[in-house]
Structure formats: C-alpha cells, structure tokens
Amino acid sequence: MTDISINFAGIKSPNPFWLASAPPTNSGYQIMKAFDAGWGGAVWKTLGLPTINVSSRYGSVNYRDTRMAGFSNIELISDRPLEDNLREMQEVKKYYPNHAVIASLMVDTRQEWETIIKEVQDAGADGIELNFGCPHGMCERGMGSAVGQEPEVLKTIVGWVMDAAKIPVITKLSPNISHITDPGLAAVLGGTNAISLINTVKSIVGIDLNSYAPYPVVDGKGSNGGYCGPAVKPISLHMLKDLAQHPEISKVPFSGIGGIETWRDVVEFILLGATSVQVCTAAMHYGFGIVREMEAGLRQFMEEKGYQTIYDFAGKALPNVTEWKNLNLKYEVKASINPDKCVGCDLCYIACDDGAHQAISLSDDVTNRVPTIIEENCVGCNLCSLVCPVEDCITMVKFDDGKENVTWDELTNANEIPDTFNDMRAGGRGHFVPTVEDAWNKRKYNR
Ligand SMILES: Cc1cc2nc3c(=O)[nH]c(=O)nc-3n(C[C@H](O)[C@H](O)[C@H](O)COP(=O)(O)O)c2cc1C
Ligand code: SF4
Ligand code: SF4
User: Fold this and answer.
1) Domain ends where: 274, 296, 320?
2) Going by CA atoms, what residue is nearest to atom 8 of ligand 3?
3) Same domain, 350 and 367
4) What is the pLDDT of residues 299-332, one digit of tens each?
C-alpha cells in the first residue's frame, strides 16, 4: 500500500492535498467538511486587520464550453472577526488533530505580526503561511504583493516572523514579478521553513460592453483582479521549477498552487519538486469532492510506477528541464496521420497551411477526406497534432537515427554557429515555402 502522508517542514498531513487560503477555508464549518471529504490540510483564509469587501467580487474567463478556465477575484483577506476565526481554528484542531491547519496571515507592523502569530499558535495552528501575494486592495496599503515584489522588505518581515514563531513558517510568493528567485531567495535568507506559490496573477479578465468597466463590476467601476484557475497552471509550474532548481532556495520544501484540479496536475507539481499542493478555484468550482479523484489517481500512478511515498518521485522531472541551448538540434520528428482515426475535418490542413509550414495537402479525390503529410516540408512543429480533435490521430514520429546529438551551446563553444543566413550551417535553409505566385493563383482560383 502506498503511503501518501507528508511531513512538510514539520507540518504533518495524511496526504499532500491542502485547500489554499481562500473562500473554501473561510470558516471551521467548511474546513471540517473538507477534511471529511478527504483533504489532508487547509490554509485558513488570510487573517489580519479589519477590512471591508465589495460586491461583486469574482470574474471569469469562459473559454468556449469551459466555464472558469480562468478565474479572477477582487476579494480581500478574511472580513470575519478575528476572534471567531481563532475560536473555530481551535475547535477544528480538537476534532481533527491529525489534519494540517495552517494560519495564513497578513498584517503590517512588527508588533502586529508578533501579536497575531501568538494568537494563531495559541489557537493550535500547525503552521503559518505568510500572504505576500494579494495583487489587489491590500497591496495598495503596503501589504500582500507590495511585499512580495520587494525582496528586501520581504526578507525583513520573514525575519520578524521567524523571531516570533514557534511553529513552521511557509512564505507564499506572488507571481507578479520578473524573477521568482528574487523573492524566493529573500524568503530563504529571511529564514523561512518553506515556500508556497503562486498567489494570483494581476489581471483584467474582460470589459463589460455596457458599463465599459472591467469585470467584476462594482457600481460602474472595476479594478485589477487576481487571476487563478486552470489558466495559470503553466505559470506556476514554471516558477516552481525555477525555485526547485536553485541551489539555495531548493533547501526548503515547496507547496505548489495554481490551477490544480486533477490527480495529473498534482503529479506534475510533485515531479517539479512540490511536496504538498494547494487548491482554490477547483474547489470553488466543483466542491470538496474533487479530492477523491486526486487521491485515487495519485495512488494509481504511484502503484503503476512502483513508488512507496511521494518523496520517491518528488522533483524527478527537474533534470529534464533545461535551457533551450542544451536541446538536441539533430532530433527530428514529423507528423503522421492515422487514416483509420481521421474524421476528415481539415483542421490540420488549415492550421498547417495558414499557421505553420504548408506541409499538409488535401486530396483532389472528394471521396478521400484524409489529408496527407508532405514529409519534406514538415518541420515537426506539433501544431497539427494539437489542433486535431481526435486523440492520437496525428502522432509525431521520430525521423532521425538517434546517432547525432548537437546543441547550440556545443556549436557556440566550438565556434560552429552560423554567422550569416547564407551560411550552410544556418537553419531554415532549403525549407519549402510556396511562392507569392502560388498565393496569387489560389486567390484567382477562389474568386
Ligand atoms: C476568491 C479568492 C480569494 C482568495 N483569497 C486569498 C487569501 O485570502 N489569501 C491567500 O493567500 N490567497 C488567496 N487567494 C489565492 C489562492 O489561495 C491561490 O493562491 C490562487 O487562487 C491560485 O490557486 P488556484 O488556481 O487553485 O485558484 C484567493 C483566491 C481566490 C480565487
Ligand atoms: S508538424 Fe507542423 S509542419 Fe508538420 S505537418 Fe504538422 S503543422 Fe505542418
Ligand atoms: S485534424 Fe485530424 S481528424 Fe481532422 S483532417 Fe486532420 S488528421 Fe483528420
């Protein structure tokens, strides 16, 4: 039997699935319901100073049939009385001593940090998460992402917290920065026990065409929001990779956040070095029950691969994430269409002819709807396989014999890189491109 329990910087949890600090962790009621559903931990909705929320608060990017492919909010930290949150935290820990309850905090002065840290420790929190991420509202008051974007300030505040805290401290980073390693390193130098990422991405999800205000509209006006949900997963994975490959920052564990919805997302985050994951949007969209699919899928993956614990495969993808200059320039794939699966929709032809390399032709025979790959034109870009609506209908087939391996870096070191476009070593030479006359003739033909 696989063991999916974790010890995250000293915070023990029966599994790596935590709810992120957000509306699903607004109350003890919700957190207890979530633990019953199977979540191993919860980061309480950020506690801090008294605040007032607006209505409405959320916006979304609905992409075709998919609602909330991206999600946005202009909500602030918890607006519930601090003493209610602390009392409920204590009660939750009483009922669920083996689950992880982490207090997310955001205050301003050193005195305020010291006071609130003592309060959540007294309430029985297993750990503290520092919210340096909110890109709206709180940052205008010098907190949230205003701290996350200033590594020196962040380091100072982490230092204050470490002096005061007796329980593990996780620093939650904002993605609204050019180099995530700057605040990441500052957090580690400040003494943090762990890092979580990402908080939301500063964004405008759309403009209401009646009020001309950004969503969500508040009495005819709007503000930038924080973007999250499936759309931000690639940003989060990339930032996690940057931290996990850094020799100093990788000494602390990472909790991965951003667009996690399925077991596969969970595994991908673990493969890039996370040893706990946090979920907000998917729980808001589908409810706490999604954790059952996550757990079943994670266990099945581990059984199939022969892993006993998640630490057996945490970070296993990291050696394969390299810089472009280290990729093998001699590796060659080309598209191949399975005629038995093709439904003759022409989408691959249109994509390749208009958006790629004119490497797909259609048959003149109206009874044959299967396009043909023109191998000598195909550069192996993948586009047709990505647009094809049938799973595994277009696959990319290896064409090189695997004997050669040359990288841009090696060519540079050997002084072998092309220095003019006429250089025989330059790429793109001899690739087929239809002529201007071809376009002209097609135009005449289409009229
Ligand atoms: C409505 C809403 C409120 C949020 N409130 C907080 C908060 O109080 N503290 C915090 O650290 N993050 C907050 N977040 C950010 C989430 O914890 C999380 O970092 C982000 O949503 C990315 O995860 P996801 O893609 O699973 O939603 C909030 C997110 C949403 C959507
Ligand atoms: S892989 Fe790219 S170049 Fe090759 S056929 Fe597909 S779209 Fe065209
Ligand atoms: S996109 Fe796929 S299904 Fe459609 S014509 Fe091309 S190969 Fe066939």
Assistant:
1) 320
2) 342
3) yes
4) 999 999 999 999 999 999 999 999 999 999 999 9
